[in-house]
Amino acid sequence: MVLLYLFFIVLWGLKNGKSSDSQSYFLAGRTMPWWIVGLSLFAASISSTTLIGQSGDSYHTGLAVFNYNLTGIIVMVLFAVFLLPLYIKSRIFTIPEFLEKRFDSRSRYYFSGICILGNIFLDAAGALYAAALIIKLILPEADLQMIIIVFAIISASYTIPGGLSSAINAELIQAIILILGSVILTIFCFQQGGDYFYGLFADGDMLVKLIRPLSDSATPWLGLIVGMPILGIYFWANNQTLVQRVLSSRNIDEGRKGVIFTGYLTLLTLFIVAMPGLIARHLFPGLEKPDMVYPNMVLQLMPIGLLGVMLSALLSALTSTLSAILNSTSTLFTIDFYAKFNKKADSKHLVFVGKIASCVIIILSAIWAPQIGHFGSLLKYYQEMLSYIAPPIVATFIMGVFCKRVNANGAFAGLIGGLVMAVLLLFFKQYLVGELHFLFIVPILFGLSCLIIYGFSLLYPAPSELKLNDTTFNVAEFKDELSRMRDCKWYDNYLFYSVVLLLLSAVIWIIFS
């Protein structure tokens, strides 16, 4: 059944691909309705980190890991209201391109380069490695490198020929299978271990608490306020892999509704990822590797008849993530670097270069993926470095959008200053901040970056009006939009669904506080 599913996904992706020009290949022609944007965004965001990592973290520390998703939902609403309209109005292909429109090419190249390296050697390689681990549980004798190559070929086989359209249409099927399969797994999980969860909740055990003491090693309550939102902005509003799906929407309103729809789907991860991971503490006590919690639940809880469905759901998350990363990374290279180098390249030539770039990217990822198992500590350090690099990037976007006095020199100084701070923290963290939780380091880096950006900007002339058009927040336009929303029917008003989404998030925080 799994093989049939993978074969169907490849055919479906190829059938629905578009590669006639660069806008079709990289942004699906900017024609996607809200529900397709929402499902695609959800499928791309449910990576190996979410399914395997969050369930393992829930096994280890309880439901607190779901705080990242809840704060992410708040960020999604803010993204839909403030940043998304600017992205779509400026007609960008990539998020780094927005930095060039607001500042200059230096900021664009820096951010794009960081994204490409991270996508290849962390995200794509990580997705391939996670898929290989799952198959190794089923077929222990299978060669790890061969499994990785097979999955690389599967994802590349429809993403490279068809571009973003292929990726999005495949993600629609994958998102539906993922949700249905995870719901089925959750039902079986509660049937066998539900009493354990209810007992923890009745006793007020810390494992079921979202709001934790300041001394908590997982998610101290202050970190929810000062740290997680900054990381959430980087993930949801500055991440090419995810935002590219939003850029494919047919207009601003459809994009906004798609993001809010993703927020509702993200609420489901409390029930289909975090809770089952916590119950697994009772069902599979003493697991040496928490990251193996989700695969073990699939293999040991699902009846034979449904095992294929659930394996398909699990592989859906991994292949959709890989497909999303592959397409976004080739877009970054082609639009941010090659198109700038070869300004005479026409639309079809850019598509050709994008396909070649995708081939190189998937090969590099497949070569690096097996090394993750040997250099786990280095991967940890790399992830930590990314968490240090994120705050300066978020500061650059936020200051650029909401402060018109900030200019290109200030932005670039903030990015380079942030990089220097990241390197210092990577090698001298113990001497500089001791055992300070990384959620408290994030706002410190963010604040220092904002000061550098603004301070250096004051040393140079203010940016021209041309740099501020469609790249900065306009209060007058926002007020006009709010007045138009009052005349809009409630069922067609994205703000109504946004408020309901925020209220549901607040209710979850209250129930599990």
Descriptive notes:
- The structure is a single chain.
- Helices cover 78% and strands 0% of the residues.
- The chain contains 22 helices and no strands.
- Helix 6 packs antiparallel against helix 7 and helix 8 packs across helix 16 (347-368).
- The radius of gyration is 22 Å and the shape is globular.
- The two termini are 42 Å apart.
Describe what is shown at a glance:
78% of the residues lie in helices and 0% in strands.
**In terms of per-residue confidence, which ranges show pLDDT below 50 for 5 or more consecutive residues?**
none
Give the averaged pLDDT, no decimals: 85
Give the DSSP E fraction (strand runs of 2 or more residues): under 5%
Oligomer: single chain
Rg value: 22 Å
Summarize the main sheet. Answer: none
Number of strands: 0
What's the total helix number? 22
Structural class: mainly alpha
Shape from CA axes? globular
Distance between the termini: 42 Å
What are the secondary-structure elements, in order, as H or E?
HHHHHHHHHHHHHHHHHHHHHH
Helix content, binned percent: over 70%
Task: Produce the secondary structure layout.
Elements: H1 2-15, H2 22-27, H3 34-45, H4 48-61, H5 67-89, H6 95-102, H7 105-138, H8 144-202, H9 221-226, H10 228-237, H11 240-247, H12 252-267, H13 269-283, H14 293-301, H15 304-341, H16 347-368, H17 376-402, H18 408-432, H19 438-458, H20 465-468, H21 475-486, H22 494-511
Kindly list the characteristics that best describe this protein.
513 residues, mainly alpha, globular
